[in-house]
Structures are given as structure tokens and as C-alpha cells.
Amino acid sequence: MTRHHPDSLSLMEYSAGNLSEPHALCIRLHLDECPHCRSRVDTLDSLGAVMMEQQPKVSVSEGMFDSILSMIDSEPAEAAKAATAPRISVLQKLLGDDINKLPWKRQLGDVSVLDITDRFPGQSEQVVLQKLAAGGKAPAHTHRGEETTIVLQGAFADQKGVFNQWDFVVLDDKDEHKPVAVGCEDCITLSVLSAPVKLTGTFTRMLNPFIR
Fold first, then answer.
1. What whole-number distance in Å separates Cα of residue 212 and Cα of residue 209?
2. Model confidence over 85-116: pLDDT tens digits?
3. Distance from C-alpha of 66 to C-alpha of 24, rounded to nearest angstrom
């Protein structure tokens, strides 16, 4: 059961289509597993549709109208093909069937990472997968910018509480934490960062110049 959710503004921006692709992905993954937030977005979508109906009418040329009808006529055949094909989740499309078998790179101590920013061309944020070994601790750190994170597997705990699978959290430069993986499996998260993290430990802070 998810306990940590996107805030109302984030859900509004998602419904309006105003979020970057990586941020929208994080919310989409949460929505797939959270009926509460999904219901809120459905309501926002309905409100958006009502507002669109109140906009001034725009005339449609006869050629465009015929084109739209043609697309509608072809949809049943496409829908039939989709119905027979196995359902592939957004996460499977992006990462494959087993996220534990990705080419992880050990970073510090119990933490391994995989930078997947190149899968989102044209985006300014850094998009990374982070794996914290079961029972392991991440170095104490804060954030130079904003970090949006969703838990894909396992769970972690910090001073804000326990974050389980599909929980959602946004941190910034006012937050300093030292996540610990709880449970018997590795904790894997997907994070979108506007700037690199800043290590705050006595010794690890010396590595900050090398973090990109």
C-alpha cells in the first residue's frame, strides 16, 4: 500500500501535460499502483475536459473532418491487435523484464547506480536508477536542487519515514538524509535530479568535486 503521494500541484501539472517526460514517468508509475491518486487525476482530467468545452468553437475543414473519420474507422482493427498482444508495462518497455540484471555500477559502499538520462533525449534533468543493497546504508547527503524519486522495488527508511514500493517523494536542498534499505531485498529507486547530490559525511564530503 502506497503511503507517500505526489502533491496536488504535481497531479495538476501531470493532468495538464506540463511535466517533463521523466517526471511524468515517475507519476505514471505511481498512478498505476495507487487508486487514490488515480481517482484524483481522473477528476482533474474531467475538469479539464469541461474547461475545454467552454472554449470558443473552432471550425474544422471538410478535409480534416474526413481524415478524423478515417482514423476512427481504423481504430477497431488496431484495438483488436492490441487486445491479442501481451500487456507490457511502461517500466518493462524502458528497462526490460528484470531490473536486478541491469548493468549496475558500484558507486559508494552499498549503493549502485545506472544513469539512464540518454533514454530521455532533450531533457535537462539527470535520470538515474539507484540500488541500495538489502540492509545497506546510503551516505548522508543533501541536494543541490530538486530530486523526485519513486521506489520501484523494496523499501528504504530515513527521518521522514518508511518508503515502500511505488511510494513517491520529492526532496530539495532543505532535506538531508541517510537512507537505509529495509526488508530482505535490495531497494531500487528511479530518481530525476535537477542537480547533483551533495555528500555531507565527515569523509565522503571530500568526494563532492567528483560527483556529476
1. 8
2. 556 678 888 888 788 889 999 987 899 999 99
3. 33
Cβ atoms 212, 172 nearer than 8 A: no
Q: Is 111 left (phi over 0), alpha (psi -120 to 50) or beta?
A: beta
Identify whether the C-beta of residue 180 lies closer than 8 Å to the C-beta of residue 126.
no
65, 68, 81, 156 from 71: Cα distances, Å: 10, 5, 15, 47
Summarised one tens digit per residue, pLDDT across range 170-206 is 998 888 888 999 999 999 999 999 988 777 754 454 4
Check residue 162 and report its DSSP letter.
E
- For cell 493532468, what's the residue? 15
Please state whether 6 falls in left (phi above 0), alpha (psi between -120 and 50) or beta.
beta
**The model's pTM:** 0.78
The number of CA neighbours under 13 Å toward the Cβ of 129 is 21
For residue 121, the surrounding DSSP H or E stretch is: none
CA distances from 131 to 3, 69, 185, 200 (A): 21, 48, 10, 20
